[in-house]
Specification:
Length: 403
Amino acid sequence: MKKNKVITGLSVLALCTALASPTLATNSPNGKLYNENQVYSVNGYTDYAEMVKRLQQIEANSQGKVALEVVGQSNQGRDIYQARVGTGDKVVLIESEIHGNENTGTEALLSMLQFLGSSNSPEAQKIREEITLVTLPKMNPDASELDRRGNDMSWENVVEAFPQLAEAVKPAWNYYNNRILQDRDYNGRPGFDVNRDFNPDLNYVPKAEDFPGTSSKAGWYITPESQTVRDVYKKLQTEFGKVDVFIDLHHQGQYYVEGTDDLVTMSLSADFVPDPNTAAGAKYAEYKDNYNFEYSKQLNLAAYNALQSLGENSPFNNITLYQQNLDLPGTALGSFALNGSGTVLFEVRGQSHSLGQKKKGQLVKAVETGLYGIINGVVDGSVEMLDAGEYDNIPQTAYSPSL
């Protein structure tokens, strides 16, 4: 077993008391953590219709604290909802299920909205006063209903929406067609990885010469789901001047805490594109005055410390860093980091095809705990007192156990 300790900052004691990358977001290579012949149930998770009903109930019972709004539609016409609570001048934007087989984030957001919309506790009141929390739960609902990573959209749908793309030499590189991915069949029902469809130029218009692209190049906003998130982000920029914090809730394969035989409960990251202020990030130089890697690290530390505070031998102690030194400008996190948001990636253990609803309660609690660590740190300002250099002391992720 490992030994971890809470990473400290000037006032972290008070805090603790109060995209997936193409390399790591796959099955564990040792092949022993799940049965490939087993169908894992996800019935314990909230489906789209249940989520809509729950959101409407939360709003109705909140006495005006929670505002629910339809902010867009998926490719198949399902409404995409925004739930907003709080009146503070610091903005925290959180999305879940950009990949439809990654479910725990939605459960955590519903629980948080229920609490913040109904509780008159000092904590809830303080959060509502100090921040504006904007959530986009289950923002890729077509994928969620199909229990798969990609949305439900063909390249022909894209060309219909953007006729200029008929001249593209190939469809987008993140187009899933005529293949099986994560035990889900895209033959005859293709889709896109929406989390590679973002662009730091929030006004970008798709051009045929930019296709098919690669993972190290920006996306195009060709999917209605990414367009919706972009539009929400831009409206918040107009209203508040900036989006202070953006958090994206994901799942990954089943991995280990480096140097141990402990399964990772969740991985964190602040690192999605090279720093525009460095030679490696020179291609992003136009965004160098916006980018705040230090603040992103501090936000990640706030989540990490909150989880560590639950106890050394707790599964919530098994938190690692996600793969670092990435260049993924087509992700929501990469694009919004370049636009000045402090960014945090949550990568929870196991996707629906490899874990189903097993460990649901534990994993949802891990997400909630990390989110409240960040939110409380933003509310009281303690997050800005954390030593960003301690981010690199968070344990690394390993593919196999240490024997």
